[in-house]
Design brief:
single chain, about 100 residues, mainly alpha, 4 helices, about 75% helix, about 0% strand
C-alpha cells in the first residue's frame, strides 16, 4: 500500500516465525508434545500474526478513507487464507512424522 519497505518485511517476518515455531516444536519434550501443538502453537501463531498485521498493515478505516483502495470480499480473504494455510498443515504433519 505504497509502503514497499513494510510490504517486504511481512513475508520475511512470517517466514522467520514459522521456522522458529517448527524448530521449537521439534525440541519440545515428548511428555508435553501433545499439549504444545494442540493449544500453545495456535495461540502463539495467532498472537504473532495479529501483531504483525496491526503494526505493518493498514486498518479498515484507512482503506475506506483512501480512494485508491477498496475492501476485498470476505470470500476472497478466506480463500487466500485457506490456500496459504495448506503448506503450514503439510509442514506440520511432515515434521511430526520425522
Amino acid at each position: 500500500m505504497k509502503e514497499p519497505v513494510k510490504a517486504k518485511k511481512v513475508p520475511y517476518y512470517g517466514s522467520i516465525f514459522i521456522i522458529i515455531l517448527i524448530t521449537c516444536l521439534k525440541l519440545t519434550p515428548p511428555e508435553i508434545n501433545q499439549l504444545v501443538p494442540g493449544i500453545v502453537v495456535p495461540f502463539l501463531y495467532a498472537l504473532v500474526a495479529l501483531q504483525i498485521s496491526t503494526s505493518l498493515q493498514m486498518n479498515k478505516e484507512a482503506i475506506i478513507a483512501n480512494p485508491n483502495y477498496t475492501l476485498q470480499p470476505l470470500q476472497k480473504v478466506i480463500a487466500y487464507g485457506a490456500i496459504l494455510y495448506l503448506p503450514w498443515l503439510a509442514i506440520s504433519f511432515y515434521m511430526q512424522n520425522l
